[in-house]
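Batch manifest, entry 17 of 40.
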Amino acid sequence: MRTAHRVETVRTAEREAMARLPEGALMRRAAAGLAAACADLLDRRVYGARVVLLVGSGDNGGDTLYAGAGLARRGAGVTAVLLAPGRTHPGGLAALRAAGGRILTGPHDGTAGDVAGRYGAHEVLARADLVLDGIVGIGGRGGLRAEALPLARAARDSGAVVVAVDLPSGVDADTGEVAGECVRADATVTFGAYKPGLLVDPARTYAGVVRLVDIGLDLGVPADVEALQHADVARLLPVPDAESDKYRRGVVGVVAGSAKYPGAAVLCVGGAVRGGAGAVRYVGGGGDAVLARHPEVLVHDGKPGGAGRVQSWVIGPGLDDGVAGALEEVLASDVPVLVDADALGALDPDAVRGRDAPVVLTPHAGEAARLLGVAREEVEARRLDAARRLAVRYGATVLLKGSTTVVASGGGPVRVNPTGTPWLATAGSGDVLAGLIGSLLAAGLAPLDAASAGAYLHGLAARSAGRGAPVTAGDVAEALGAAWRSVAEVG
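Output type: structure tokens
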């Protein structure tokens, strides 16, 4: 499992480590790991490579300078552009000078400091093979300052490999928010622990490939964010035993579809039948369409309360009429309920919080914004915060769909899904996901695990079905079996 910690936690751990280690040891560890990662990105052709360091103030700049010194000692031509010459890390600056590195003390400076040669910062960047972004560290807030913008743009346009030091300058390490223009990196080398912003959009798209350098921090507290991997999901997936029958494996009830949206019922049931439960009961007016695609489904054309015993309910995809009444019935049951799509608009927070059995909400950003009473842009900019707030308001587990799917419950780490793909932004894919998670709930998974594992399999299925090409929701449903097998084989 990949885990991420907030800046305050990392800072505390760094202070504790520095108190017990020789002076400068922590920075040397970080710089050595950074230099090694840069060498890998240069395909080990360090000698003769042209490396430019964009150096801000403080320890982030120090890490960058020490790494640059290491690359210079291996034969790279290293030039440091200092954005805050009066506040540059003195030890790192001395190390780079001693290693033969060159110094530019301003964005347009071609003569100041001890630089040798006729190139200013922009000319040096235009000729670079690799650029290290050490402008702002993990404590930065807001977008890049005006003086840094021309350099960040020149680095982006240079064609060089851009490596962010700890995280791309201009993104928020804790929230993933991008409040203005920031550095877009090809790779990020982060120290001691992943930061939440590296795992969630919009910041994640600016980080590139992320590499963690272990510098020996004792973080001492649970993570703030988790990202499951294959092995984690494999441990969660239900496996029948010799005594299992369809009822012991769990029955999921699906209330979905309408005359206007019959496909939603078919897609939701398609996710449910492949989600590990032993049987699916469908309640609604689209029974003929459902049976045509899934003859194994138990169809009931009355109200949910008369459908028979289930171990979970899924309600909402494609419902057009009677949403409020059907929602009231399923919330009155004593089993987990997943609420999606049209049913989200009929939710009463008090009715959800008053249940003994758990509730899972699966909104997209627009639906989450309506539930919170904020603008959609606010939800998309601060996805972790929006999911946490919804979970607290409704006393539920919340899966916030989007470019990074986020799953939050009332307490503990928020989970982010690493398998998503933009091709999932297609009609009906959320219906498949709702059915899949509902089936995992019926099979006995806890709400946080069911939502997290469902999102993980859903993303894998889309990748497998599309292989870089467009997919339909039906393709995703059909590929769930292959995704499940690929995960189970790891376990």
